[in-house]
Each structure stands twice: as C-alpha cells, then as structure tokens.
Amino acid sequence: MRWVPLVLAALAVSRVPGTETEGRISASAGAPRVAPEMMTPVRLLTRAEYEGTADSKSVHRWPTSLDDTARYAAVKTDGATRTVVVQGSPTEGYRLVLDCDADGDLTNDAVVPTTLADEIHVVTFESPDACAPLKLGLPSSTFSTKFPLKGRIFEYLWTERSGSIAVDSRPVAFVLQGFGGRYDHDGAAVYFDRNGDGIIDTTGPACLESDERFGLGERYVNLGGRTYTFEVDRRGDTLALTPSLAAMADRVSLEPGSLAPDFSFVDLSGTTHQLWDYRGRVVLLYAWATWCGPCKQLIPHLLEARAQFGERGLEILGVNKQEMPEVVQAYVREHALPWLQTVDDGLLLDFYRIEGLPRLILIARDGTIVDRNVRGPNLLERLADLFSQESPDPPTCAP
C-alpha cells in the first residue's frame, strides 16, 4: 500500500456487518433512459476481422441487406452479446443492423438509419428483451475533424432511472446509474438528493466526485440523521434502504472550500510524506497512468505550470493508478517528470472518488479544496487566478 488516508480508520470503526435493523423501505424507479454524455468508442471491424473474434460466435446468420463495405462490432448488455453492423459515411450518414433480441440471426432485424444530432449520427434502439434503451453513435465529418476517432462506433451503455423514496416521511429523490443494462455491479451508483434542493446532477466529470453520488460498493448512506444500507436489484427496478444500528460517520466532503482529507504516501524513492506536510504551499494532486493518452497530453501543461508557479509555492503530487513501480519509474525518466510520484493501490483514488483519468485536484495553501476537477487547457489560467489573490510574498513552508 502506498497511499494511506489517515481518516479511513476512524470511518471504518462503525462499519459493522450484520447490524441492520427491521424497517426496510423500498421504492420503484422510473423507466430507464440513456445517459447522453457517457459513451465508449469501440473499433469497427471488417467481417473477416470480426469473424476472428470470440464475439462473432454468437452469430449464426449474417445480414444480407448490407454489402462488403459494412463494419462490425459487439455490444454487450445484460449478459448478452449483440452484434451491430454499420454501413455508410460521416458525410451521408449510416444504416445499422443490431441483433436486438440477441438470437444470433442478423437477417430478422430491421435496417435502421441514423439521425444527426450534435455532430454525431445516432440511433436509439428499444428492445423488449433488453432492460434499458441502447443508443449508438457514429462521428460526422465535422466531429471527425476535431477528434481522431475514425472507424469507431460510440456505445452509450450507461443508463439512468429516477425515483423518490420516503425517509422518515420525507421524500428523497434519487437517480440510479447502471451500465450495460445492469444496476447491481461495482461500477453502478446511486445519487441521493441529500440536501433537498431538488437538483441531482449526473452530467460531466465532476459528478463522479459529487457528495450526492454513492457507488454500490460503499453500501452505506446517511439520510435524515440516520445510517442506512442501500441495495439495488439487477435491473434497477427497486432501491431498498435498511436502517443500521451502527451509526456511520458521514462521508468526507470533497466540495470546494472543504478541507482536503489528509493521507500519507511513499514516493518512488521510498520516502514517506503526508499531504498536510505541504500546508503553506499550493498543491496540485494529479491522478494518472502510463497507458492514459490524455494524461500524456497533459504533461506540457504540468511542466509549464511548474515552471511558472513552482517558485511561488506550487507543489505537484502525482499518484499513479495501480501500475508496477518499475513501469512508473521508467515512464517518469523517459518524460523527465520532476515532481513527486507515488503508486496507488486503489485506496486513495477510491477515497477521493476519482474514477476517470487524468484528474487534477487543486488544494489551497490552507489545505482547502479549490477545484476538484481542473481541466488541462484551463490549468495555467486557474493557477494564475489563485496566485493573483495572494499577497506579494505569501508564507511558505518546506515539506
């Protein structure tokens, strides 16, 4: 273990299994809808290439309505593999055949044209055999000039279901978020309207660290001054809450203005540090991985930030996501990365609710969170704004 959040031990004391009481409450969720901003690009293959994959084994009849220029990919929802066949162009649009009923017969499924929306050719399938709508997209000519995603199909496999559950006679709105038609796996989440403002934001990267988002693996939530365990069934039809005898400490807030949770870490040379050692300096917590393309694109921004603000008190702390230390060390040497680095075993990234990479969290000199999702192109501007608010000679302390 290379990262050790110092507050975890205190939180874990009250996590006593088997302490739920009677009084289970449940509520039904509404119809599933596609989460429009959450898509995964998947490479399209020729038929010969696709036939060489394990996914093609589910197909026993190939489409006859499309010619040899068609391309193939697999869509996996609710435990089934559905082959999708695509023909067309970014300029003229596309026609798709999807094995909606997952019977392996692509001759009994309709050819469906796409429609252009926000620079992407899209089509949404409704299937009685799938527990959620399935949206697929392909880049238009305009989109392709901005992003190098030629030969890809976008699979919108994240879906959401909304509802309201009565907690101590008070309605609490919720949103269930699932993937591939399932809402009971580790990547699924529940958003609770804990502050009662009637707003649950599930869009954009910042939603992953929202104080109202709870991953299914967390199990516990505090509502109305009481701790509950929560469960969601496979298809997201029902959310259930069970009161717990053991009170859970409320989850650490990551909202701007909150105190950044302290943690200790061991750098690549074996030296131990703590986040709070850097009080008096501006800290940029940087989550990354060697395989992450956007992380590599971020390096010039980080180097420039250090050059401009390092002497004024900026400290960059890099946390690599679960790679071998020798792999990280080689990458650091190759790219001449001068800031502190460590390797996380997953504990800290989970604790800070970091899922997507790269992620930049900006922490002020007093240890409070300024911005938990700084974007690379805006990094220098964000830092300049923060440093401009200080006196000419702010106090610093050496770690």
| Corresponding CATH architecture of the largest domain | 3-Layer(aba) Sandwich
Mean pLDDT: 84
Instruction: Detail the poorly predicted runs.
Output: 1-21, 393-399
CATH homologous superfamily title of the largest domain: Glutaredoxin
| Number of structural units classed as domains | 3
- What is the rounded Rg? 24 Å
Biggest β-sheet description: 5 strands, antiparallel
Task: Name the helicity range.
Answer: 10-25%
What is the CATH T-level topology of the largest domain? Glutaredoxin
Overall geometry comes to globular
Structural class: alpha+beta
Report the span from N to C terminus.
22 Å
CATH domain class name of the largest domain: Alpha Beta
Fraction in beta strands: 25-35%
**Assembly state of the chains shown:** single chain
Spatial order of the strands forming the largest sheet: 3-13-14-15-16
**What's the number of helices?**
7
Number of β-strand runs = 26
